[in-house]
Amino acid sequence: MEIEEIHITPWEAEAFVDYERLVKIFGAKPLTDREVDMLANVAGEVHVMIRRRVFYSHRDFDIFLEAYKSGRRCALYTGRGPSGHTHLGHILPWIFTKWLQDKLGLELFFQMTDDEKYWHSESGSLEEFNSLAYENILDLAALGLDPSKTHVIIDSEDISYLYPIAIKIAKKITYSTQKASFGFTDSTNIGMIYYPVLQMAVAFLPSELYRDQVMVLIPAGIDQDPYWRLTRDIAPSLNYPKPAQIHNKLLPGLGIGGKMSSSKPETAIYTTDPPDVAKQKIMKAFTGGQPTAQLQRKYGGNPDACPIYKMYEMLFEDDDKKLLDRYNACKTGNLLCGECKAELAERVAKFLINHQERRGKALNYVEKYLIRHKFDVPKVRNPNRNTK
Amino acid sequence: MEIEEIHITPWEAEAFVDYERLVKIFGAKPLTDREVDMLANVAGEVHVMIRRRVFYSHRDFDIFLEAYKSGRRCALYTGRGPSGHTHLGHILPWIFTKWLQDKLGLELFFQMTDDEKYWHSESGSLEEFNSLAYENILDLAALGLDPSKTHVIIDSEDISYLYPIAIKIAKKITYSTQKASFGFTDSTNIGMIYYPVLQMAVAFLPSELYRDQVMVLIPAGIDQDPYWRLTRDIAPSLNYPKPAQIHNKLLPGLGIGGKMSSSKPETAIYTTDPPDVAKQKIMKAFTGGQPTAQLQRKYGGNPDACPIYKMYEMLFEDDDKKLLDRYNACKTGNLLCGECKAELAERVAKFLINHQERRGKALNYVEKYLIRHKFDVPKVRNPNRNTK
């Protein structure tokens, strides 16, 4: 009931939500200095997204870090529903995930849910979503995720890695549970109803591949939380460790309210946007400023409700001092929206030029990310099998 | 409503049902002399199970035979839920399927639904049902099904063959449809709710493997009909031919009412039963005879409601004249149940000795039946894929 008021599901989300309240409703914990210190202790430093609490809540992140420190096998897991090209809202958690991968030397399992996107879509063929999965891998490559430690599972093609685990999960979940967790109705297609078990299965895949109790950390948007609550409920009964999570806030879209969303392309900067197009989108964006320059100078703007400011805070200004200056200059009316936008537009354009060049080069080695070239399918264990 | 009265679902069935009424309710067609003649025309002869209408109803069997005669690519499809060892009720349609394979030279796709049996079971591990799937293949081998033309799909291990097709089917089916077709409730696990798409997917697999519009004939018990009705409803929208069916009656169990069922082991003769155990089960069986020899001589028995007589009719007496003599001798009281059982027991024991010897030898070549050694996984077609 309360969750519906806040309106966050894996398929739709507002951006400027009351994250503190959300944490309470979802039963997660806010990220505190204690966990941040623990991370600094093992990583040697702290990422800007942690410092600014872009990643702001968690479940068992402390337990994960303790396990890591004690030498226990750990892994990362995140993913993407390839419904279109990648935009900045998608790569936000991937940037942090890459940092974790580099600092902690962890394997990352990355799920491309082309099946889910096909089931959820009004139009579009399975082949198209599958193609987009391969497109999206180019962005992982462009961000520099290590191909020897990043293992991409494309659901429609790599299902055999997940299915033996998914069978066991599916037996534990009734239709009632799915209705309550995901808001399905009787007219939902059974692909959608079944799909969550596949997203859950990846959390247990490292344990199967390594035949070990692998501690998994999932960095992902808070909108994915319903999957992880269910995954954690079920883990003990299947003798897997509960996966830990660290949740990021959603990058606001360039329109009024809402997260950066593929379903509203004018509100999102895609990694494939020509830099000039991206600039135009930014220049036309909604802001937290006043309607006119005169009013802005007089009353100041509201950076806390401004998607342009949030772009600086979450992605495009690493320097805390400069960010604070920008915040204050906006508040006091010294900084006008046009100027603030123009500077962001330049930074975004520069990022895109660089990213697109790396993306083009990645065509040569995208296959190196595919799990199918690196791991055998886990066996349905069958010691008494009657074959030779 | 009416279907519930007759009480046939894929998971539970009575044996002595009103098959004529069932055909009407299910909207299938009774097998007539026309189809039998068409079969004789292409096969050169007619199998005893057709002559006696053990296979008694169909959908598009005539269209299938016409397609076959015209040189169109055709295939057979049947399967087994490996919930235990194979019993005589299971092998009945396999014997006819082998005959079709031999006479028409057809490839057979055979699904082992270890996932479904695990989802449906109260106890038992996935590994156990998977082991049973391999056990059950030995029976296909013992019956002489051609390993070069018989391709076994074990769901938990060969899911990648089915999944791209299953994704497309799942999108077309809502939970409401599943409820109505299979009687699921909100407390059914989502494995069961999803499973039907996998049974349906095999009907379209030959078309994917051969990249052709392959006409598929499914010989199977009438209790599997809900799957095929749904499969046929969906086929045109996915651009596959509707699969044809030919339905057999269910072999009665040795108890009162009910089909030969793994859930009541004393009512079933397993292919792995020691011959003496099988004999004892037959001698203890319920019959259509009178309580005493004296009453039997006076009033005669009722072979139409007798599982012993049905065993002769459906499996153990090929000679029509001898079968009719037995029927009449029972009816008139000239044949006593003990005598009739003893003769059946000898035939069954002889069959088992022979079958078990072949079954043992099959251990050496069971792998030859597995689809994974013979066909590549069909591709999610993706001509624009960005990999090299």
From TrEMBL, chains A, B:
GO terms for cellular component: cytoplasm. GO terms for molecular function: ATP binding; tryptophan-tRNA ligase activity. It is found in: Cytoplasm. It comes from the Archaea. It is an enzyme of class 6 (ligase). One of its GO terms (biological process) is tryptophanyl-tRNA aminoacylation. The keyword Amino-acid biosynthesis does not apply. Its EC number is 6.1.1.2. Its main location: cytoplasm. It catalyses: tRNA(Trp) + L-tryptophan + ATP = L-tryptophyl-tRNA(Trp) + AMP + diphosphate + H(+). Catalyzes the attachment of tryptophan to tRNA(Trp). PANTHER family: TRYPTOPHAN--TRNA LIGASE, CYTOPLASMIC, TRYPTOPHANYL-TRNA SYNTHETASE. This is Tryptophan--tRNA ligase. The lineage of its organism: Archaea, Thermoproteota, Thermoprotei, Desulfurococcales, Desulfurococcaceae.
